[in-house]
Amino acid sequence: MTHQTASIASTADVDPAATIGSDVTIWHLAQVRENAHVGSGCSLGRGAYVGPGVVLGANCKVQNYALIYEPAVLGDGVFVGPAAVLTNDTFPRAINADGTRKGAADWDAVGVVVGAGASIGARAVCIAPVTIGRWALVAAGAVVTRDVPDYAVVVGAPARQVGWVGEAGLPLVQTGDLFTCPGTGIRYREVDGTLRALPA
User: Fold this and answer.
1) Among 10, 114, 127, 147, whose CB has the most other CB atoms within 10 angstroms?
2) Euclidean distance between CA atoms 36 and 16, whole angstroms
């Protein structure tokens, strides 16, 4: 395990083959598996799980009991709320069709990819393989079964888009064909279902 200036609770289980960046905090009962990469400035809450080979960018916040299964990849500044789950098995079964117990060679793990700055609410479930776009917001309890565009707000089960959100995390205000962030003043235009920031 490589880590510099990380604060790791004595009850946390961090595999020696994991890479832990600087200024990382790992709380009680969290588990970080082999070959996982936890970027600098990350915080892993109590009981959080980071699977083998999972990649967390810098400054991610993974709240209590969130489960991130391999081969998930999270960009910088991603928020994962309490008890959220990022799955990795398209056709989950404990046994094969012949009744034998499934092993690692009996299935192909698929991952969730989360863009920089995105937030996944408490108890949301992201069913791999899906991509959550940059700065998107997945509401608490949502069940994500398809890709989420950059800046989109999705709610419900299955999750559906209900609006747009800016980098500050605030819902964008629509005026005509433009959307404005009330926190930053950044303006956006929607083009074919994609939100694009306008030059300042």
Assistant:
1) 114
2) 10
Is the Cβ–Cβ distance between 71 and 53 less than 8 Å?
yes
Which DSSP state fits 171? B
The verdict on 152 and 200 lying in the same domain is no
Distances (CA, A) of 144 to 34, 66, 100, 108, 150: 27, 15, 31, 20, 14
pTM of the model: 0.94
The verdict on 172 and 132 lying in the same domain is: no
Residue 2 domain-assigned (yes or no):
no
Q: Which residues contact 122 (CB under 8 A, 6 or more apart)?
A: 63, 81, 82, 83, 84, 140, 141
Q: Please write the tens of the pLDDT for every residue from 19-36.
A: 999 999 999 999 999 999
